[in-house]
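Forum: Protein Structure Q&A
Topic: Joint prediction for protein chains with partners

I've read a bunch of threads here and the consensus seems to be that you should model interacting components together rather than docking separate models afterwards. I'd like to see that in practice. Below is the full input, 308 residues plus whatever partners are listed. Could one of the regulars post the assembled result?
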Amino acid sequence: MVVDEVTSDDLDRLFHALSDATRRDIVARVMLQEQSVSALAARYAMSFAAVQKHVAVLERATLVSKQRHGREQIVSGNPQSILRAREALERFEEIWRGRTDRIRAILLEETVGDKEVTGPTVAATPEAIPTRPPSTNDPKGPSS
Amino acid sequence: MTVTSTRKDVEALTLGFVTEFEAPIERVWDLFQDPRKLERWWGPPGWPATFTQYDFVPGGDASYYMTGPDGTRAAGWWQITAIDAPQRLEFDDGFADEEGKRVEEMGAAHGVVTLEGIGAVTRMTITTYFESREQFDKMAEMGMEEGMREALGQIDAILAETTV
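Posted by a regular:
Agreed with the consensus. Here's the joint model:
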């Protein structure tokens, strides 16, 4: 395909990662500001291990990346991957944009066709009648 | 000029599309109802659609294929789930194999078309619902290809216009 070479496996992981409310919440938070796994875990009514699992799913989908700082694991967002999910939807949008353009063209064609049935209105205007240009010279022309 | 707006919801996997046509509602409806007219706009540029079956009643089946510039065929099916002429049409839309049989594992997208007459203008809203994340993933791949053809076709059209 193009530039980024997005495979269906990539998209699989991406949409799977985004299909869970907790994971979407994690993504939204770390996009704003990077956070440690323990700070994230404190926000949800689930175990540290469960939150860590969610982060791992997001990491595989390249939505977030994780770095170790001493004892802490810091999670930060990867906006590029969110853009990719949007792009997939944009492709569908493109399909409908094309379809509506064609519908519009057909409707226009039909409208023009109707007008032709009632008869073309091409009237000869006085301006359209050729007139002799006003002559300023001797009408007899070059005879001298 | 016509305003077209779209609403994408990545999380809910829906795609909304609103546009207006300067034509009466019956005429726009006819472009869905009449398969010969539908064929003229359903496929992307260079991929005209041929509907081999079109049973335009609730529960009715439709089969079509699109033919590419090199003769490649891409087949699909519709199942019409609701009709309220001339303002509402609902259908499932999926992929088919070379024999026209449904590719069940690809699932289907559910499309809802509503038309609304506002004076001489018809507003069309199309909402596509993907049934699940898995199904969206699969369709995204195919959709990306078709969207690409659509985009390329439009570029071709623009190029053709500018060279004339």
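Helices of chain A lie at 8-18, 21-32, 37-41, 48-60, 79-117.
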